[in-house]
Amino acid sequence: MDHGTGKAGGKEWDSLQYGPERLEADVEYLQRRNPFLEVKTIGYSVAGRPIRAIRFGSGPALLQINASVHANEWITSLLLMRFAYELAEAALPEAGGHAQHGQMLPAEVLAKQVKVWLVPMVNPDGVELVLSGPDPASPLYADLLRWHGHEGSFHDWKANLNGVDLNDQFPAHWEDEVRRRGLNGPGPRDYPGSAPLSEPEARALADFTEAENFDMVVALHTQGEEIYWNYRGLEPPVSERIALRLAGASGYNPVKLTESDAGFKDWFIQRFNRPGFTIEAGRGVNPLPVEEAGAIYSRIKPLLVEALKAAASLK
């Protein structure tokens, strides 16, 4: 794999349609080439696809970065996996590599101060649906067509395979979010489900977060070039300061949100009273064109590096 030219498996990073199969191949490659990292399956999707998590570093500060909670924001998986490859190639004592091109990856921070878990594709079924359309062999095929209004393209689909929006699934004023959305059943977006954590993907992410007891979390979404850092005044004072650091590294705009509930970041802040962030990468209409991935990554990488340093500063 040639990261000097931004290539993965002979393909440019910004020319990949990045779905579950590509993710599995890349995770297997990373694990084979880098025995110092850890890979675990934190759960399974509606269709039984594994939800992977990849660990780098061994420090006391615990950071989680996840991506593709929303299906048509699958470009975030590509961005996070590119970061994973660069972490593996960084000048870590375990890897013996050298950081290349752009901002140096903080090898000492990773090795001695931070343990970071990447969850690159929380919603693999939804991503596959966006990229390839519904599978006629799926028992949900007829339902998916009906929920989507029998339209041909599923490019606008945000939900999981059950038509539930995973970022409206978390037990942080979930009932308020249900009332705000006003939807009675499954669809491409914004249906919070029948109960909090009713969907296996949301449950897997919540259980993993509880088990690891993270000090800080970052959720990658698209789009808008914004950083959401607060939740109902429950966030610790350090959250705003970290948001400003992330903004300084990326040029993104830190935004104090109101009238938004039941998201992963919201639940993490409410549950743990620790810093949690939603990053809206890029600008445009979802799904963002994959050809823009390189330009988006040039701003996301320094933000993620700063997130590593910020997490380390919490200990």
From TrEMBL:
Pfam families: Peptidase_M14. Its cofactor is Zn(2+). Residues 15-315 form the Peptidase M14 domain. PROSITE patterns: PEPTIDASE_M14 (PS52035). The active site is at residue 280. GO terms for biological process: proteolysis. GO terms for cellular component: extracellular space. This is Peptidase M14 domain-containing protein. It comes from Paenibacillus beijingensis. The lineage of its organism: Bacteria, Bacillati, Bacillota, Bacilli, Bacillales.
